[in-house]
Every structure is written in structure tokens, then in C-alpha cells.
Design goal:
Blueprint lengths: L5 E12 L10 E16 L4 E6 L4 E6 L8 H5 L11 H10 L9 H16 L8 E7 L9 H17 L12 E2 L3 H19 L5 H8 L2 E5 L2 E4 L7 E6 L6 H14 L1 H22 L6 H20 L5 H11 L4 E4 L7 E6 L5 H13 L3 E5 L7 E3 L6 H8 L2
Parallel strand pairs: 3-5
Antiparallel strand pairs: 1-2, 1-13, 2-5, 2-7, 3-4, 6-13, 7-8, 9-11, 9-12, 10-11
Helix pairs in contact: 2-3, 3-4, 3-5, 4-5, 4-6, 5-6, 7-8, 8-9
The structure holds adenosine-5'-triphosphate, (R)-mevalonate (MEV) and magnesium ion.
Keywords: ATP-binding, Cholesterol biosynthesis, Cholesterol metabolism, Cytoplasm, Kinase, Lipid biosynthesis, Lipid metabolism, Magnesium, Metal-binding, Nucleotide-binding, Steroid biosynthesis, Steroid metabolism, Sterol biosynthesis, Sterol metabolism, Transferase
EC number: 2.7.1.36
Subcellular location: Cytoplasm
């Protein structure tokens, strides 16, 4: 079976407030980044599926005959509209298939399992197509910037397009194209399945930002775009301390179960921080006093995240080094290492920013001023993709 080739991308995200609390039904405020994950899907003529994931040194090819062990009749029953609930039995079979009998999956196995789950599910009712997918991301993997969600959103968009479940939105003369609301919801629900495989118990905020882009308020699966917010200046610092979102989300859950009367008020307080932040961000105009409130909210939330057990000495260093320059920082995403964000005021002098960045780099961290609010998932013509990214994607 031949499918149409396609090239898609989805943005990473940063969470301003509400990470972890959002998993427990509280509000999160998140915004897309202008750093993206790209996926090229190419039809092939042989009976195999190739997966090239150069960011994580993972390259696999699977011959269709191998899929026999997955018991096709079982996954034949899966219908596309059932993208709300993960098929635990299929996940178990796929874990065996990728060679994990116990313990945790590594990056490569997790990514492979996520691809196979969505691939087998969206093509469940028909013939499996031979294809090659290649993924390249500008996002650091596993650093709190939503790399897993950008990956899952790209997989969902490309595979649903290939299956003909959503249309190929790109016309001949378009550089980029997006999908209608209904198609985006479809992409988002399959991306959520991908996130569930990678994270265990995701809130869905990361895949929502990857799908819709811009700034969102997310509460219990409800997504509200926030369009009237100012363009914030944010410094991103990657401590390069590796961590796993899945393990950190599980750690917070254990703590809540162990000390409910202590931890629930912390989650309520984070909720109130998100509400207050949203209120301040929608004031017009935003004054210096408003920025002082935003900075205090960042400090309070960072303390709360430490109380939840998702801090790290490297993140403390980011907070200390930036505070020495009068700037306020918190971790973003799951924490435990990974990235921190630092709020810059519109008038913050570029020399202050440069000096702060140098101090952070001297600590061994990567640091850059980012632009936020990139578009959600989109389809590309090759000429709309940066040459260096296209070159990597074309290598496979
Ligand atoms: N470029 C990529 N290629 C293939 N798989 C990727 C890529 N980037 C991320 N992944 C998948 O995402 C997993 C990392 O997800 P994880 O949720 O731990 O980090 P994150 O999404 O970057 O951070 P956060 O969830 O805190 O925002 C990897 O194990 C891999 O399965
Ligand atoms: C830690 C968490 O809140 C954000 C990860 O970016 C997990 C989630 O919401 O799924
Ligand atoms: Mg993730």
C-alpha cells in the first residue's frame, strides 16, 4: 500500500505556571516556543517500516513479517475514534516486541513504541503501508521543553494524514498549512496517547500546546487560547541534568498520596498562582508593578516545586545566578534538572542579559533568549524548512 509523503512540524513549549499541579486538575499556563520538531514521512516500496531518530541515536527497520507476533486480529479491533483511551494490552505486546520485559524503557525504545502504537492503531482497519519516518528536533530531548509532546504531535499528524483520516492540508502553492479545528482535535487526541505511553499519566497540556501553539490556559483537558497577552521576553537555561518526566510525575503523585493534607494546599496555591498570573497578563497596559507581581509569583512557585520534590541543585544555581542580576527564575516542565525560565522585563538592558547568560554558561549550562508563541502543528513544503534541517531529514 502506497501513502502520500508529508513533512510536518510541531513546537515545543514552556510552562509559565502549573507544571505537576495540572496533572492533579489544577490550571496551567503554557506557551509554544519557536523551537520545533520536524518529521518527514516517505512512502517506500518494500514490506518494511524504517524509523530514523538521529537526535537520540535510534535507527530501526521492521519487516512486516515481524508484526505477526503482535497478533493482528487484536489490534484490528481498535477503531480510530477510540483515541481517548490507551489500549494497555497493545502497549504490553509492544513492550515485548521492542524487547523490554521489565524495568524502564530507554529513550529509543520509548520513541519506537510510541511510533508503533500510533502507526498500528491508525492503520488498524486496513493494510499496513511501507514507509520511512525521520525525525529531527531543535529541542533538547528530555529537558522540560515538551520534546515528547512535539514528537507525539508530529507522529499523529503525519500518520493520520497518511491514513487519509485527516486531509493533506498543503496545496501546491502553499509554504505551510494547518488543519481545521476538528482535525486538530483528532491530532491532539492521538498525540495524547503518545504522551501517555511516554509519561504514564500526562495532563495533556504539552500536546495541546504542540497542536494549537500560542499561549494556552489548560484545566482538566479544557484548552483556552489566551490571545491578549503581551509578548514576554524569556531566557531559557538548560542545566543539561538528565531526568525523566514519567519518573518525576510519579514522584509527585507518591508524595501527594503520602501527605495529602500537606501537599493538596501546595497544589491549590499553584492553582492560585496561575489564576493570578493570567489576571496580571491580561491587564492593559502591563506596568512595572505588574512585572514585580509576575516576578514574585515565579519565586513562590519555584519554592512550591521544591516542596513537591522536583527541584535540583542545578536549578537552584540558575535561580541564584539570575537573582544576583535582579532576575527571577523557576524550573519549567517536569523539573528534576532540565530547563529553567527567567523572566526579562521589556526594558531589561541587553548588557544585563548578556552578562547573566555568560554567568550561566560559566556554570556549564546552555542559555539563550527565546521567542515564544510559535504556530502549532503544521504541514510544510520542503522549501519552507530551514536548509540545515532539510539536509538532515534528506539523509535517510
Ligand atoms: N527528537 C526526538 N526523537 C525521538 N524521540 C524523542 C525526541 N524528543 C523526545 N523524544 C521522546 O520523548 C522522550 C522524552 O520525553 P520527556 O517527557 O521525558 O521529556 P520532555 O518532553 O523533553 O520534557 P517535559 O515533558 O518536562 O516537557 C524520549 O524518551 C523520547 O521517547
Ligand atoms: C510535569 C507536567 O505537568 C508537565 C511536563 O511538561 C506533566 C504533564 O502535565 O503531563
Ligand atoms: Mg514530555
Amino acid at each position: 500500500m502506497q501513502v502520500k509523503d508529508c513533512l510536518v512540524s510541531a513546537p515545543g513549549k514552556t510552562i509559565l505556571h502549573g507544571e505537576h499541579a495540572v496533572v492533579h486538575g489544577k490550571v496551567a499556563l503554557a506557551v509554544s516556543l519557536n523551537l520545533r520538531t520536524y518529521l518527514k514521512l516517505k512512502s517506500s516500496s518494500n514490506d518494511k517500516v524504517c524509523i530514523n531518530l538521529p537526535n537520540i541515536d535510534t535507527f530501526h527497520y521492521l519487516v512486516f513479517a515481524h508484526f505477526v507476533t503482535l497478533n493482528k486480529p487484536h489490534w484490528n479491533k481498535l477503531c480510530i475514534d477510540e483515541a481517548q483511551r490507551l489500549d494497555a494490552e497493545l502497549v504490553r505486546r509492544l513492550r515485548d516486541f521492542v524487547g523490554v520485559t521489565n524495568g524502564n524503557l530507554n529513550n529509543g525504545n520509548t520513541a519506537c513504541l510510541t511510533f508503533l502504537y500510533i502507526y498500528l492503531s491508525v492503520f488498524a482497519s486496513g493494510e499496513l503501508p511501507a514507509l520511512t519516518i525521520t525525525v529531527w528536533s531543535e529541542l533538547p530531548t528530555g529537558a522540560g521543553l515538551g520534546s515528547s509532546a512535539a514528537y507525539s504531535v508530529c507522529l499523529a499528524a503525519a500518520l493520520l494524514c497518511a491514513a487519509g483520516t485527516i486531509p493533506t492540508s498543503l496545496r501546491e502553492w502553499d509554504q505551510t498549512a494547518r488543519w481545521c479545528q476538528e482535525d486538530l482535535e483528532h491530532i491532539n487526541s492521538w498525540a495524547f496517547q503518545g504522551e501517555t505511553i511516554i509519561h504514564g499519566n500526562p495532563s495533556g497540556v504539552d500536546n495541546a500546546v504542540g497542536t494549537w501553539g500560542g499561549m494556552l490556559r489548560f484545566l482538566a483537558g479544557k484548552i483556552i487560547p489566551l490571545s491578549r497577552v503581551p509578548l514576554l521576553r524569556i531566557l531559557l537555561t538548560n542545566t543539561k541534568v538528565p531526568r525523566s518526566t514519567k519518573a518525576l510525575v510519579a514522584r509527585v503523585k507518591d508524595k501527594i498520596n503520602k501527605f495529602p493534607s500537606i501537599m493538596n494546599p501546595v497544589l491549590d496555591s499553584v492553582d492560585a498562582i496561575s489564576y493570578t498570573c493570567e489576571k496580571v497578563l491580561t491587564c492593559e497596559p502591563i506596568t512595572g508593578e505588574h512585572y514585580s507581581i509576575l516576578e514574585e509569583l515565579i519565586d513562590i512557585n519555584q519554592h512550591h516545586l521544591n516542596v513537591m520534590g522536583v527541584g535540583h541543585p542545578a536549578l537552584d544555581t540558575v535561580c541564584r545566578v539570575t537573582l544576583a542580576k535582579g532576575l527571577h527564575s523557576k524550573l519549567t516542565g517536569a523539573g528534576g534538572g532540565g530547563c529553567g525560565i527567567t523572566l526579562l522585563r521589556p526594558e531589561t538592558d541587553s548588557s544585563v542579559v548578556q552578562n547573566t547568560m555568560q554567568d550561566l554558561k560559566d556554570c556549564g549550562f546552555d542559555c539563550w533568549e527565546t521567542s515564544i508563541g510559535g504556530p502549532g502543528v503544521q504541514q510544510h513544503s520542503p522549501s519552507s524548512v530551514k536548509e540545515e534541517i532539510l539536509e538532515i531529514l534528506e539523509q535517510y
